[in-house]
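User: Could you check the structure of this?
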Amino acid sequence: MKILITGGAGYIGSTIYSALEDHGYKPIILDSLTAGDPNFTIDKNFYHGDIGNSKRLDEIFADHPDIDVTIHCAASIIVPESMDNPSDYYNNNVINSIKLLDYLKNTSATKIIFSSTASIYSGDDGGMVTEDSHLSPKSPYSKTKLAVEMAIKDYCHAYDIRGISLRYFNPIGADPKMRSGPSNINPSHIIGKLSESSQKSTSTFHVTGSNWPTRDGTGIRDYIHVWDVALAHVRAVQNFNQIVTKSEPYSEINIGSGEGTTVMELITAFEEVSGKKIDVLYKPARPGDVAGAYTNRDKAKQLLDWEPKFSIEQGIADFLKWLGKETSAI
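Assistant: Sure, the predicted structure tokens are below.
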């Protein structure tokens, strides 16, 4: 089976590519390389282009008329950037996704798996959420993800399209075989910041907010190994026709570990894995910060027949291994 992955040169998309290939599928990448890593396209079936470019899509489907599923990962994803420049985010994430949907509904590739985000949940109380929990996206980034979810759902009910939105929580780690990982060796996410702090004797890790309604007062998140995220996509492909049908053409599924980890617990895990001490400085919560959330994964277990296999410690270890590999290559 051939599967189109938009954004397949990104951190998550490239990992999905490897997981699909390992399971006998034939993935095809469409990526503009605006944020994707060209190294993740080497020796792969790759098309350089934008998801809103119908001529590029024409070329792909002319070469591969037997594409069966589209996994839609392409998006701008930097939250602070979305606050500063929402226009780019609505154009790239929403308008281009609508163009992609309009194209796909006129092909035989009417199965779509969408890369969504758990940041559409409110996360105000640090508790567990299900797919039916209150939605309250805070940033333009998360608002665009919810907008695309809504569009896919509407298209599924109006046209001959079926769709699944996978709402990721907080992916960490790298492909265990080290074929791909975070392409920015100084990333803005928490594991990258912890690594940066551990390597610089003058660097302090800032914990923003210490009065949240959690076990230790620090924010709580659901960290999930990126390989587990990739395997969830494999299961979504394998079980697609059972999950969504003509009468029930759309579904959303949370993808997380099902366990909440506070910032201080994550720091402790990082120290244990890396063997390095982190200097912590508590700072006030920033505007827009929330306590956080973690998922109930019953629906993923029921519909995908999927459960995460990797621990937070393994995610940290794989990230550090990937970081060492990337640093040595510079």
